[in-house]
Amino acid sequence: MKNLILRYKFFLVMIALWVGVYFFKTDLALRSINITLSSIKEMLLVIPPIFLLLGLFDVWVPRQTMIRFMGEGSGIVGILLSFLGGAMAAGPLYGAFPVAAVFLKKSASLRNVFIFIGAWSTLKIPMFLFELQSLGVRFAVTRLALNIPGILVISWVLDSVLSDQDKEEIYRKASNLGKN
Amino acid sequence: MSYIFYGAAFLFLIISWFRDKQKTFLAIQKAWRAFENILPQFLGVLVFTGMILAATSPETISRIIGARSGWLGTVGAALVGSLTLIPGFVAFPMAALLLQNGAGYMQIGAFVSTLMMVGVVTYPVEKMYFGTRATLIRNGAAFLFSFLVAYVIGWVHTL
């Protein structure tokens, strides 16, 4: 029980915050319920199948395969696969984190995982097509052309700035996520 | 789009089930544990996002991004993009509307770029997976990078 409260600490703080808002700005608090409910609905549409696919991936794909395609020595193939994996995704960025964790658990390189996260955040193909339509060719193509080198630079920065200890911590977190 | 995920998940579950029931059961168990692990953070973030979005109506956003031009407007747009969590299918038409109503391309570039790459409200979730330092560096770098994107987008639209 105590453990449960500790785990839901952040959620409980947010609920308390909401109650506070309710007293001062009731209409805002009520409007936020609708938005939260629709976000929960969106989450339920995206997240459960991702976790199921990840569970299957975890069980069926051998570590060796991951190392070969996205591990430390995977070179240009690993970089391309990471870009493609992220770009073919759908759904909000928070969906990328559990995927990244399973990749890390299977010994993908940190740099490739950050490329994957970057691509998921801003290079998704369905989003690009939609951006093209709403904001025009110039806007969408300029952003695409900048984002590819931008993601590479950010991943490289992360990989160089993080200490070995930070990196070990990230891998440790990733391998603990499926356990209780 | 999400139906594809559901379809794929069921298809692979069935294939997996026929090949190895025990492994499939293990996969479902792992999926549930990973989901249950992150659920508290998710719920907290969604409650918080609801409040942020309720407080920032399209009118508020257009007031911040639309009225002020120049770098001040760009910084404001980047902050709004970082703080909000709007799906692209809502954000792009909104950005197009803001452009029609007189917002500059540089500001919209900053807004769209930070909206996609920077997640302040999802910080608790990202931190669970990548730790504090990596999360801060990734978001900080993406925030700065968005100003470059904004500048170039502003520039190509003057050509």
Structure description:
- The complex is a heterodimer of chains A (180) and B (159).
- By secondary structure, chain A is mainly alpha-helical.
- Chain A has two domains: 1-46, no CATH class; 61-176, no CATH class.
- In chain A, 83% of the residues lie in helices and 0% in strands.
- In chain A, helix 6 crosses helix 10 (164-176) and helix 8 (125-135) crosses helix 9 (137-161).
- The model of chain A has no long low-confidence stretch (mean pLDDT 90).
- The model of chain B has no long low-confidence stretch (mean pLDDT 88).
- Chain B has 159 residues and is mainly alpha-helical.
- Chain B has a domain at 56-156.
- Chain B has seven helices and no strands.
- Chain B is elongated and about 60 Å long.
- The chains are: A mainly alpha (180), B mainly alpha (159).
- At the A-B interface, helix 2, helix 3, helix 6, helix 7 and helix 8 of A face helix 1, helix 2, helix 5, helix 6 and helix 7 of B.
What structural category characterises the helix and strand content of chain A?
Answer: mainly alpha
Shape of chain B: elongated
The number of helical segments of chain A is 10
Helix/strand structural class of chain B: mainly alpha
Number of domains of chain A: 2
Q: Look at the structure and give the mean pLDDT of chain A.
A: 90
Q: How many DSSP-defined strands of chain A?
A: 0
Radius of gyration of chain A: 19 Å
Straight-line N-to-C gap of chain B: 36 Å
Choose one word for the global shape of chain A.
globular
Order of helices and strands of chain A: HHHHHHHHHH
Low-confidence stretches of chain B: none
| Distance between the amino and carboxyl termini of chain A | 15 Å
Mean pLDDT of chain B: 88
Give the oligomeric state.
Answer: heterodimer
Features:
heterodimer, A: 180 residues, mainly alpha, 2 domains, 10 helices, globular, B: 159 residues, 86% helix, 0% strand
